[in-house]
Amino acid sequence: MKGCDNLSLGLWVGLVFLTTIVITVAFTTSYWVTVQQGLNEFGYDAVDIGLIYSCLTLTGKDEVCGQYGGALSDIPVSQWKGAALFYGMGVFVAWGLCVISLFSFCSDGARSALRILMSMSTALTTLGLLIFGGGLGGLRYDSQSASIYSNCYGAGSFNAGSNCKLGDSGVVACVGLGLSIMATVSGFLIVRSFPKKDTHELMQQIESERSLIGK
Known about the structure:
By secondary structure, this protein is α+β, with helices and mostly antiparallel strands. The protein contains 5 helices and 5 strands; from the N terminus they run H-E-E-E-E-H-H-E-H-H. It has helices at about 1-25, 80-105, 110-135, 170-195, 200-215; strands at about 35, 45-50, 55-60, 65, 165. The chain has a 5-stranded antiparallel sheet. Strand 2 and strand 3 (about 55-60) form a beta hairpin. Helix 2 (about 80-105) runs antiparallel to helix 3. Residues about 195-200 have low confidence and may be disordered.
């Protein structure tokens, strides 16, 4: 059973690593929302918007990608500041979990901590995605603050509007959420499935070891 237990834990750690990579890719790429129309007046052919990065394609030129700035206040959509904060914290916790699991996933004492960290990461990234979806209305066109980041006509909560659509990074983030939930649930199931030795069995094992030493 020991080998089976370690195999199960190893597979779970692999799932955690996969989940962490996926949510990191989503967080650090720019294609959460793609603006499809109404950009010519600003001199752009395409605009892709992410939580902390964006990609702009000037008319007749190559795409240029970069971070909005060095602070949350630089993110152009107000609600996404919270989304970036919570999603980023979830990614950070997931990487911490990966590092810890490399050295202690076989330890009985560490399993509860690993489950808690995975649950925290899932909760934080889920909250970030909910804030992101609820904040899509911030992309709505407003003549008082018209810009390339507010050109999604008809945008509202969980609706990007007629001029915009969910980009590849948004899809990757949704996949990452599914993997996070799988990793959280399977983490609890795997640990609960491990048989625990009762006191009598432990005493017998100790007595056997002592007799072997005495011989």
